[in-house]
Amino acid sequence: MTTPLAPDHAAPRRTFIEQLSTAWATRDSLLCVGLDPDPARFPAELAGRPDAIFEFCKGIVDATADLACAFKPQIAYFAAHRAEEQLEALIAHIHTRHPGTPVILDAKRGDIGSTAEQYAIEAFERFAADAVTVNPYMGRDSVEPYLAWPERGVILLCRTSNAGGSDLQFLDVGGERLFERVARLAAEQWNSTGQLALVVGATFPAEIARVRTLVGDMPLLVPGIGAQGGDIEATVLAGQTAVGGGLMINSSRAILYAGKGRASLAEYAAAARTAAQATRDAINQFRQLCGQGAPATGASA
Question: Which key words are in the record (predicted)?
Answer without folding.
Answer: Decarboxylase, Lyase, Pyrimidine biosynthesis
